[in-house]
Amino acid sequence: MSVFSLLGICFLVMGLGLFGYQGLSAFLDLGTSDEFVYGNIKLIDILGDGMFTWIDGISSPSIQSFAETLVNAPAAVWLLGAALFCFLIHAFRGTKHIR
Predict the structure, then answer these.
(1) Is 11's pLDDT higher than 90?
(2) In degrees rounded to 5, what are phi and psi of residue 95?
(3) C-beta of residue 55 within 8 angstroms of C-beta of residue 68
(4) DSSP string, 39-91
(5) In the structure, what pLDDT confidence band is assigned to residue 36 with cuts at 50, 70 and 90?
(6) Sign of the C-alpha dihedral, residues 54, 82, 7, 17?
(7) Is 55 within 8 Å of 67 (Cβ atoms)?
């Protein structure tokens, strides 16, 4: 098993675990209210607003909007995207066994 496939499996487990944690948290909150509220953990929630103040200084509105979208994307999507990226690298760069 290559490093990229191992990294992909780790990212996949972390992403699915985060989805499960968020779902379980929403189910446990049903005991205090009658609403099912699924809350995504975002990159900006993890690192804080101060880390991304440089986005406001981007001169192009389209690039600024794209950067805001990436920062506000759920962390689970980032982890699953990283897993997919690692699996693709393994598929194209993995060891080839010639028989």
Answers:
(1) yes
(2) -70, 135
(3) yes
(4) ---BHHHHH-GGGGGGGGG-S-HHHHHHHHHHHTSBHHHHHHHHHHHHHHHHH
(5) confident
(6) positive
(7) yes
The tokens for 43 are 């990159």
Each residue of 2-35: b (16+ CB within 10 Å) or e? Answer: eebeebbeebbebbeebbeebeeeeeeeeeeeee
Q: Which two tokens stand for residue 96?
A: 């080839």
Distance, C-alpha 12 to centroid of its chain: 10
In whole angstroms, what is the distance from residue 41 CA to residue 47 CA? Answer: 11
